[in-house]
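Researcher: Re-running this chain for the archive, since the previous output was lost when a drive failed. Same request as before.
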Amino acid sequence: MFPVRYGLEMMSVILDYGIDSEAKALLLLALSMRDRNNQREMDKVHIQKTIKYFEHMQQDNSIDFSNFLHGGVSYELQETLETFEEYGLVENVGSSRYPKYALTEEGEKGAEELTKKRSEEELRRLKFAKLQLNDLNFDETLFFMYMLLPATRENSIQFERLNKKRKILVQKLFLKGRINSDIASEWLGIDKQTFLDSLPKGC
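Model: Regenerated structure tokens:
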């Protein structure tokens, strides 16, 4: 049943829509932030991974994530996204085949309320997570998170495929500034100079 507004009285969006869980709050906040390309839209993978990255930085387990299939995925977040779309807080601005989600005007109001309730450090970390991931492609995003959080790849259906492209993916992440040469060489199991020498000429 959808929330109802009576007369001219405008209640809190947070109260109206029952935004009472960490998954609901973080979903709205993540969609309200801009990435490196000044975009706010996110697909399902980037929503999931951005919030997982944030929880990792917070050392918090408020949201239950599963390490099966794509690894580091929360069914609670998926259900929340579907509910918010039904409520009109979030809309698909992509296509049926490649959905991307953005806040509606009502969703923006909810995000504004939530921003006032979170600490600057929490908002900074969530913003950092989105800046790190949202403009990466599907493979880059998954690989980055699998390497950052090894437990998420244990039962993943994607890691074996991505691991075969490890060298090129590490190079791309380095060239995009998401990892430094120390991390890149560690992920490849080679020394730093050998990694730097392996980069395409002119980089």
